[in-house]
From TrEMBL:
GO terms classed as biological process: regulation of DNA-templated transcription
Originating organism: Davidia involucrata
UniProt GO MF annotations: zinc ion binding
Keyword Transmembrane helix among UniProt keywords: no
Keyword check for Zinc-finger: yes
Gene Ontology CC entries for this record: nucleus
Keywords per UniProt: Metal-binding, Nucleus, Zinc, Zinc-finger
Protein name: Protein FAR1-RELATED SEQUENCE
Function: Putative transcription activator involved in regulating light control of development.
UniProt domain SWIM-type: residue ranges: 565-600
Length: 691
């Protein structure tokens, strides 16, 4: 087995946070990818099989001898045997001009001289003189080389195998690359071969003996790889030491180009770099505005350097992830995470976030409790949901789909007592009382269910848009770079706010004509305004009931359940809702907005426009201003025009049908028009009349 080029390969962390080092995480999307590749392979095999339904025949032509071998091999597998390459004949002019493919049981074993040992091994041969064969001959026709079947026989003198046995023939037993990596990892951890096979069976959810290879193949693979692994380990150790020194030099050089750039590192007892962290001047300045909520992503680790990658992100006022800092850690324990958090706080000049969002990890949890005692710790629900399949799909079997649906509902319950009750019911119903992953989730329950964290400020980092933004950043920096220096440069490019572009909304239309909507549009970014606008639209469907103490019960006019209590303090212009949406996201909920409208407020109080969501806090200068005056003129013109069109169309059915048909056609035409940047520069209507 030849040594592979030493590239920096990033993979998702596979060690389960339950603490059992034998437990292995397989993410749902990875399962789908694996399943998809298996389906592609099976479809390829099926399509190949459909092509080789017909028995080979003398005179059949192939473009190459490899194509003929694959064809005959597929035919053999379908018919219960395998083949091997036998004799080849070559000449000076044509090179190899004949190929002989025979049944795997063709010929007889030649007697070998027995070794001079006390108990020589007496292996039985599978060869029995079978005469099944396919002979190829090469010819050149009109200057094009082709191969034709010169002899063919499908007569066997042995029993042909059924499908469940033919797959065990050596020719069809393959260990895929992903399985090879897993086998080497388990072997390195001290697992014997029989346990490695059992672990793979459990992970893949197959019955014993149903893997596409057998224990003997695993043993041979481990033996063959042993020397190569040792050689690669030596190469990797040398590469890691050299590249870490090069990364440190790159950090020192960056301080000359970026005055705000900071870094920190630790060394082991031999003076070799263990951990390293860094951040940029732009990131530190961004933290002063958007550092209230930080996500610490530890999803990936480097196989090449055997190091964990941790990236700190914030969320800016356009809902996108912004880079705040980066760390490479040799170990995944509480001491390493404590050092990382200490470095981050130092980078941010002693400032700490209100909330930190992480994956589920006991070591990280302990480190946060020590280093950030006043910071709320939230475990990202998306990280938990991505592991649920790996934890419960096998033990629950056919019940898993129903369990997953109930678990999702449980995650979003609003009341702690309801969560506790439903949790106990779920555990009892599916018999998971002694499951270690259930115990893990319950021990961390104050950090992940919505019922516990609804009062924590999260600034919308739990949205799918933000999650996609983080994934996009990581995909841009994680590829097979050959050195850490190049990885460092990639992060610098991705983290530079000057390189970022923003899709700007030049026109944010008013939907309700309420003065508070018009007022908010001039203060908030388009992203934040669209969220608030959605709440304003919802507020118009809420009914209010004033209580004796001046509070309000607010509910949807069609729904009797789900009402919220809104407390109004007029002297301080304070409004508080039991749904805690403002405390959670920094954006007022529809219930509070409804009360403000009832109280004849034409503007939302300034305190409910946090600085982090305002236009003035934007990190990237906008190319153009959001058009307000001209867009208002457009809005008024269109309102007038559509109102007149609507009233005229109601005079007769013929008019209505005509208007409906033409407007539908016009809308489709407008949607298909190309978008040109200059269109947004002048939105003022020209020569628009009402009739």
């Amino acid at each position: 087995m030849a040594a592979k080029p030493v590239n920096n390969i990033w993979i998702r962390r596979q060690q389960c946070p339950c603490g059992d080092w034998k437990c292995y995480i397989r993410y749902e999307e990875d399962d789908q990818t694996t399943l998809g590749s298996q389906l592609v392979k099976s479809e390829t095999l099926s399509s190949s099989s459909s092509e080789v339904v017909f028995t080979p025949y003398v005179g059949q032509i192939f473009k190459s001898d490899d194509e003929a071998f694959e064809y005959y091999s597929n035919f053999a597998r379908m018919n219960g045997f395998s083949i091997r390459k036998a004799r080849s004949t070559e000449s000076q002019n044509l090179g190899i001009y004949r190929r002989d493919f025979v049944c795997y049981r063709s010929g007889f074993n030649q007697p070998r001289k027995k070794a001079n040992v006390e108990h020589p091994r007496d292996r039985k041969s599978v060869r029995c003189g079978c005469d099944a064969k396919l002979y190829l001959t090469k010819e050149i026709v009109d200057g094009v080389t082709q191969w034709y079947v010169s002899q063919f026989s499908n007569v066997h003198n042995h029993e042909l195998l059924e499908d469940d046995l033919v797959r065990l023939l050596p020719a069809y037993r393959k260990i895929q690359e992903a399985d090879q990596e897993r086998i080497l990892l388990l072997s390195k951890a001290g697992f014997p071969v029989n346990r490695i096979v059992r672990v793979l069976e459990l992970e893949k959810g197959v019955q014993p003996g149903q893997l596409p290879f057998i224990e003997k193949d695993v043993r041979n693979f481990v033996r063959t790889c042993k020397k190569t692994v040792q050689e690669n380990d030596a190469l990797l150790t040398e590469k890691r030491e050299n590249d870490m020194l090069e990364l440190l030099e790159a950090c020192k050089a960056m301080t000359g180009r970026d005055e705000g750039f900071v870094y920190n590192f630790t060394t082991d007892e031999n003076g070799k770099i263990e951990n390293i962290a860094w951040s940029y001047g732009d990131s530190i300045r961004a933290f002063s505005v958007f550092g209230d909520v930080v996500t610490f992503d530890t999803t990936y680790r480097s196989i090449t350097y055997n190091m964990l990658l941790g990236v700190w992100f914030g969320i800016e006022n356009y809902g996108k992830a912004i880079f705040l800092g980066c760390v490479l850690l040799q170990d995944e324990n509480s001491q390493s995470f404590s050092w990382a958090l200490q470095s981050f706080v130092r980078f941010m000049r002693g400032r700490r976030p209100q909330t930190i969002v992480t994956d589920i990890d006991s070591g990280l949890k302990d480190a946060i409790a020590i280093e950030l005692p006043n910071t709320k710790h939230v475990i990202c629900i998306w990280q938990i949901l991505s592991k649920v399949s790996s934890w419960f799909s096998l033990p629950l079997g056919l019940q898993y789909a129903e369990f997953k649906s109930e678990f999702n509902m449980l995650c979003h319950l609003e009341n702690v007592e309801d969560f506790e009750h439903q949790w106990n019911h779920l555990v009892a119903r599916y018999g998971l009382g002694s499951d270690k992953h259930i115990d893990l989730l319950f021990s961390h329950r104050v950090s992940w269910p919505y019922s516990y964290i609804r009062g924590y400020f999260l600034a919308r980092v739990m949205t799918t848009e933000y999650s996609k933004s983080v994934d996009m950043f990581l995909k841009n920096i994680l590829n097979a770079q050959t050195c850490l220096h190049f990885f460092f440069e990639q992060i610098g490019i991705a983290a530079n706010f000057g390189n970022q572009t923003r899709e700007e909304l030049l026109y944010m239309p008013i939907k309700t004509c309420l003065p508070i909507e018009e007022h908010a549009r001039g203060i908030l970014t388009p992203y934040t305004f669209s969220v608030l606008q959605h709440e304003i639209v919802l507020s118009m469907q809420y009914a209010t009931t004033e209580m004796a103490n001046g509070s309000y019960l607010v509910r949807h006019y069609k729904k009797m359940e789900g009402e919220c209590l809104v407390i109004w303090l007029s002297e301080d212009e304070q409004v508080h809702c039991s749904c805690k949406e403002f405390e959670h996201s920094g954006i007022l909920c529809g219930h509070c907005l409804r009360v403000l409208v009832v109280k004849n407020y034409f503007q939302i109080p300034e305190k409910y426009f946090p600085l982090r969501w305002r236009l003035e806090s934007s990190l990237v200068p906008m190319d153009g201003q959001i058009i307000q005056n001209s867009s208002d003129e457009c809005s008024q013109a269109f309102h007038s025009l559509t109102a007149t069109l609507f009233s005229e169309s109601l005079i007769s059915k013929e008019r209505f049908d005509y208007v409906h048909r033409e407007v539908t056609r016009l809308l489709e035409h407008v949607r298909n028009m190309p978008v040109i940047d200059e269109v947004g520069l002048n939105l003022a209507p020209n020569n628009v009349t009402e009739s």
